[in-house]
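Good morning,

Attaching, inline, the backbone tokens for the sequence recovery test we're adding to the shared suite. The designed sequence is right after.
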């Protein structure tokens, strides 16, 4: 997208920011005009600079309450008010315009610096924001703009004062106005009017008493007509009331109170009454400004700190109300000093029965001893300490977890959480696990019985096939042989039929014998595992056209029958999978003895398979092999990946540790 085609933000009067800015601009313009007229009245002598020039602080407050994007609108709206107020006083037009330039410059400098350092979310009730305002908005902006203002006055040849006298009086009058007026305006706009709507009747009454007494006291102090009646102590009469406003009403209260004192002090001085009287108007202005500035700065900082602490306390109280834990503050001897909980009725005893008492006076002896030991360890630097215990609460055993940490020197903070539900859940899980383990043992015992029964049934069926069925087929073969040797009566076709039948009987006998061996290999009982495996591997080589490399390195002889039968079955199952699924014509079978165990490895380099998919499949061979090995306290491990071969490793101890 080119710069020419970039979309522009459409500005309409429906925009709430624009409407709010227009309202702010009109209010600033009106206040600018009114305060300018008041400022002329506050000149301590005709033609001099006012001791309190508030229009610049009005303009600065207006800029701070709007976004930088609309500052131009606020300044442009203020120009007619400036011209109307200044031209009526007989000041040349050029001087009037120069003063508007210096006034706007001061407001722009202060607002720009604050916007850069703090951002648009200026809250003078925050001490960091207030300090930035005192430095940039109250002192630095008037300091720089006063040079411009004094230079423009001298360039226009207006007045008879020297450059530095003009600079000093202009600087201090703007410092005083910014210091007291801007915090009052900004804070009242941000939070003040909302707090009025939510204040209680007692709050209204307190504010009314405070400001009424402050008005009376300030009027008495600054309206003394006879200098002989004045005492320097009287100047401090408003101070307790200002401190009252600071502590109880924060930054809004103290800034409003200072504004009242400032207006009455300057009115009194302009009328020649009060403590700030004398023949030199410049000296009177400097005295008023110094008194108010020195008084206002610490009170404003104190108000910001109190507001921050009050906000932090409110936030902490909200956190305490939100968290489910109870908290207890104890000293190094275990004496309870304070507490916080959402439900005092769920405590072991009510607060009036444990505050000021030691843990040994409140808790059961064993638990109190543990608490005191934990407190000692925390004071020794070992924190946090965690205690788990149970207490009878409302006729029910409740479980708790307490975490103890150091707080406020040698004091210890205990954060106690009710973990009864967690404990009950954990107990239920433990019981379920115990039942599951019991069920697993029962299943494994049943599996062992099934495998034992299976082997017994295999032996019975194998014997039945070998002794009964095999003998019957052998007898049938003998009868067929006699029938073929019978002289006469048989033609050629009948002889061929008998020959075919003889072959089929021989094949059936072979299949019966092989089936009998597969069901229960008698060779395993007669000649042992190694010979049985070797014989079976040779048969597989002949029947399946496989090249099987068999190796055995076993010292123990004889091998226990249950171990031999287990490894024999595992080897046959593994070789069956090689024959059916590997896609290769070679495999390796290794049997060796290692550290009192027999290790069987069957491996191939075939296509492999996904083990997890096989475990969740319907095949029973793998599950049967694993169960056989597990019943003998052995392990079965299968390593396989698609197209990377397979290795089945079974390890069975020669003596069952169970």
């Amino acid at each position: 997208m080119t710069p020419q085609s970039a979309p522009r933000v459409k500005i309409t009067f429906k925009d709430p920011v624009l409407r709010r800015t227009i309202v702010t601009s009109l209010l600033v313009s009106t206040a600018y005009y009114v305060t300018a007229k008041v400022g002329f009245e506050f000149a301590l002598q005709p033609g001099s600079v006012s001791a309190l020039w508030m229009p610049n602080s009005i303009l600065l407050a207006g800029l701070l309450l709007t976004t930088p994007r609309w500052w131009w609108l606020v300044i442009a709206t203020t120009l007619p008010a400036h011209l109307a107020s200044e031209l009526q006083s007989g000041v040349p037009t050029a001087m009037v315009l120069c003063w508007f330039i210096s006034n706007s410059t001061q407001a722009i400098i202060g607002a720009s610096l604050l916007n850069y350092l703090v951002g648009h979310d200026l809250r003078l009730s925050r001490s960091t924001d207030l300090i930035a305002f005192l430095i940039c908005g109250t002192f630095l902006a008037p300091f720089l703009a006063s040079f411009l203002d004094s230079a423009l006055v001298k360039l226009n040849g207006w007045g008879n004062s020297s450059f530095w006298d003009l600079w000093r009086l202009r600087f201090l009058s703007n410092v005083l106005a910014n210091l007291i007026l801007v915090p009052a305006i900004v804070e009242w706009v941000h939070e003040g009017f909302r707090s009025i709507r939510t204040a209680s009747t007692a709050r209204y009454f307190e504010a009314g008493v405070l400001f009424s007494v402050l008005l009376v006291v300030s009027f008495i102090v600054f309206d003394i007509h006879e200098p002989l009646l004045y005492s320097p102590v009287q100047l401090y009469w408003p101070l307790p009331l200002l401190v009252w406003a600071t502590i109880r009403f924060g930054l809004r209260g103290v800034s409003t109170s200072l504004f009242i004192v400032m207006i009455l002090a300057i009115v009194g001085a302009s009328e020649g009454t009060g403590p700030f009287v004398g023949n030199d108007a410049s000296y009177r202005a400097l005295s008023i400004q110094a008194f108010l500035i020195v008084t206002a700065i610490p009170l404003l900082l104190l108000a910001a700190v109190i507001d921050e602490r009050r906000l932090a306390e409110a936030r902490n109280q909200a956190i305490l109300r939100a968290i489910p834990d109870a908290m207890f503050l104890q000293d190094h001897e275990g004496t309870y000093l304070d507490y916080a909980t959402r439900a005092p009725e769920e405590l072991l005893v009510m607060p009036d029965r444990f505050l000021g008492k030691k843990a040994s006076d409140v808790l059961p002896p064993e638990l109190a001893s543990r608490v005191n030991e934990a407190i000692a360890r925390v004071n020794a630097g070992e924190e946090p300490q965690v205690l788990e215990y149970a207490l009878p609460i409302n006729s029910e055993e409740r479980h708790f977890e307490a975490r103890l940490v150091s707080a406020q020197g040698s004091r210890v903070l205990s954060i106690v959480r009710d973990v009864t539900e967690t404990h009950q859940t954990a107990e239920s899980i433990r019981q379920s696990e115990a039942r599951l383990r019991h069920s697993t043992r029962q299943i494994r015992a049943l599996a062992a019985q099934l495998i034992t029964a299976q082997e017994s049934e295999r032996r019975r069926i194998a014997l039945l096939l070998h002794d009964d069925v095999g003998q019957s087929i052998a007898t049938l073969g003998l009868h067929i042989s006699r029938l073929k040797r019978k002289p006469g009566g048989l033609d050629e076709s009948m002889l061929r039929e008998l020959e075919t039948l003889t072959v089929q009987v021989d094949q059936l006998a072979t299949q019966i014998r092989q089936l009998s061996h597969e069901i229960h290999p008698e060779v395993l009982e007669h000649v042992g595992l190694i010979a049985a495996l070797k014989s079976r591997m040779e048969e597989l080589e002949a029947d399946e056209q496989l090249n099987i490399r068999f190796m055995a390195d076993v010292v123990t002889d004889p091998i226990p029958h249950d171990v031999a039968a287990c490894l024999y079955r595992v080897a046959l199952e593994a070789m069956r999978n090689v024959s059916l699924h590997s896609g290769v014509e070679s495999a390796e079978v290794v049997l060796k003895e290692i550290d009192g165990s027999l290790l069987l490895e069957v491996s191939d380099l075939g296509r492999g398979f996904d083990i997890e998919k096989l475990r969740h499949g319907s095949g029973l061979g793998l599950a049967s092999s694993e169960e056989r090995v597990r019943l003998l306290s052995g392990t079965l491990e299968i390593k396989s990946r698609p197209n990377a071969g397979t290795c089945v490793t079974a390890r069975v101890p020669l003596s069952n540790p169970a």
